[in-house]
Design brief:
The chain has about 80 residues and is an alpha/beta fold. It has helices at about 60-75, 80; strands at about 10, 15, 25-40, 45-55. Strands 1, 2, 3 and 4 form a four-stranded mixed sheet that branches.
Length: about 80
């Protein structure tokens, strides 16, 4: 999904919220070799990090994803150090 790319930063944030998930799963992946992903304009971006979140559909988990996303956004300029 191209909207998962945080252009121009080298991170993608795939996420899904659904009742099929019984437990939250948050994965932080640091790729040894960056991969190229396309955004909605078909521009390729080099992705080095992935923050994948798969969570149950409930208010507590929605708040958790929001908190994680806000924290990440505060560190986009020094992403390598933060990750």
């Amino acid at each position: 999904n191209p909207s998962w790319i945080l252009r121009p930063y080298p991170i993608a944030i795939p996420h899904m919220k659904d009742d099929m998930f019984k437990q939250p799963c948050i994965l932080i992946t640091i790729l040894e070799e960056p991969i190229a992903l396309s955004n909605v304009q078909n521009d390729n971006h080099s992705i080095k990090y992935m923050l994948s979140m798969f969570i149950p559909e409930n208010a507590i988990m929605t708040k958790l994803v929001s908190t994680i996303s806000e924290t990440l956004s505060d560190h986009l300029e020094n992403l390598d150090d933060f990750m």
